[in-house]
Design goal:
The chain has about 400 residues and is of the alpha/beta class. It has ten helices and 23 strands. The structure holds flavin-adenine dinucleotide. Flavin-adenine dinucleotide binds near residues 43, 49, 225, 308 and 332.
Length: about 400
């Protein structure tokens, strides 16, 4: 007989957002089932660059980012591991005077949010960081931003949720969700059904079809950053490095490897599930990084990869209750920010479920911002996933 589970809340997706929501819900005393198609934290949440920065985030996202910043500090108590999280500082470099003016404007705008950014002119920059290449116009330093190991942190959120009593089921792809007077009933590929009055859509880059099945269509697209890591090198890079304009970024882990990002790759014939960095993307990345940090010119790349980010046109996430379906909550589309803000997004989602409200400002993340003017794909006919990644499972909304 097919297995059936019941809970106060069903979370679809065991990335950092879904897992942290599950943990926060358990801490509120609600029963939770998490259904994860692969392994918890194996997608974006586990393969990202590992930047835990607030600098550069849109001002509207800074209250959420600041809440996350406080959670990151408590990681050992929350998860039983620090996930190699260090407040190393994040240095954003400017190539031109125009870029420097942008950093100055950002510093002024971010001041009310408590970011404490320090602008460095070219001489001070060279004095502090002599390993930088020539010709930079300056930089902005956020001393309390940091970095962490996503392969440790994101699965640890799921393990902590399980330890707190959440039922976590991996290798369970949700194929169908029905909604009626008894709440939501989700059915997975293995035949497992889960019934719950609350459903959290934390399916990352695959969240669009599930939202659309309940009339909450949003213009969610996918992107694939090119990532690489070098052989271990003598330690020289004490902070995480980015560029105004964002074309390249890097950090060095304590073991000496330099993690590099920048540029995008397109899925090949095998689709997004087999996405990898391409030689062209990595060579372009290496050329840019060698100009910035000449000592990396001959560094050996030992591994390359990519992942699947979910983007909305304004690069801000969707975090809200469904305007149409009671008990449905969305938390997806975090673009390049979800590792840092993910723990706070999970906490906010748990508050929306348990209290119906949150003190963290999230009005900017309401999906109704796409209701007019944006190219929102209309909910397609049942079973059709025209607006989804090629490898998405089918999610069909049932009838009452
Ligand atoms: C290469 C790369 C670099 C990045 N760098 C950074 C960075 O430095 N800093 C930063 O803050 N952010 C970064 N990001 C972004 C960040 O990783 C994401 O925003 C964040 O991980 C999103 O978390 P999530 O839980 O929403 O999504 P995911 O981690 O994608 O989790 C969603 C989960 O839902 C599951 N799922 C989907 N559909 C179903 C279904 N039907 N049934 C069951 N399960 C389902 C998926 O298998 C997946 O595990 C980067 C992303 C990538 C790819």
């Amino acid at each position: 007989m097919a297995e059936r589970l019941e809970a106060d809340a069903l979370v679809v997706g065991g990335g950092i957002v879904g897992a942290s929501a599950a943990l926060a819900l358990r801490r509120r005393g609600l029963s939770v089932v998490v259904l994860e198609r692969d392994l918890c934290g194996s997608r974006s949440s586990g393969v990202n660059y590992g930047g835990v920065r607030r600098q550069g985030r849109a001002f509207g996202q800074l209250p959420l980012a600041q809440r996350a910043h406080r959670i990151w500090q408590d990681l050992p108590a929350l998860l039983g591991t620090d996930g190699e999280y260090v407040r190393s500082g994040h240095l954003k470099l400017a190539r031109t005077a125009d870029d420097m003016a942008k950093l100055e404007r950002y510093r002024d705008g971010a001041q009310p949010y408590g970011l404490a950014l320090e602008l460095l002119g070219p001489d001070e920059l060279r004095r502090r960081y002599p390993w930088l290449g020539a010709g930079l116009a300056g930089a902005s330093l956020c001393p309390d931003d940091g970095q962490a190991n996503p392969r440790l942190v994101s699965p640890a959120f799921a393990r902590a949720a399980a330890a707190a009593g959440a039922v976590i089921r991996e290798r369970e792809a949700v194929l169908q969700v029905e909604h009626g007077s008894a709440g939501f009933v989700a059915t997975t590929a293995s035949g497992l059904t889960v019934r719950a009055p609350n459903l959290l859509n934390c399916a990352g880059a695959w969240a669009g079809p599930l939202a659309a099945r309940f009339g909450d269509a949003v213009p969610l697209t996918q992107g694939h950053p090119a990532m690489a890591v070098t052989e271990p090198l003598p330690f020289f890079l004490p902070l995480s490095l980015g560029m105004e304009g964002g074309d390249v970024y890097c950090r060095q882990v304590a073991r000496g490897n330099v993690v590099l990002g920048g540029g995008r790759v397109e899925p090949g014939a095998l689709g997004v599930d087999a996405i990898r960095s391409t030689t062209g993307a990595i060579l372009a990345q290496m050329r840019r990084i060698a100009t910035l940090i000449p000592r990396l010119e001959h560094a050996q790349i030992i591994r390359t990869w990519s992942g699947i980010e979910g983007y909305l046109p304004d690069r801000q996430p969707v975090i809200c209750a469904s305007p149409r379906t009671p008990g449905l909550f969305h938390g997806f589309g975090f673009s390049g920010a979800g590792f840092e803000v993910g723990p706070a997004a999970g906490a906010v989602l748990a508050e929306l479920v348990a209290d119906g409200a949150t003190a963290t400002p999230i009005a900017a993340f309401d999906l109704r911002r796409f209701a007019q003017g944006a190219a929102v794909a209309a909910p397609s006919a049942a079973g059709s996933l025209a607006d989804s990644p090629a490898d998405s499972p089918r999610i069909a909304k049932g009838v009452h």
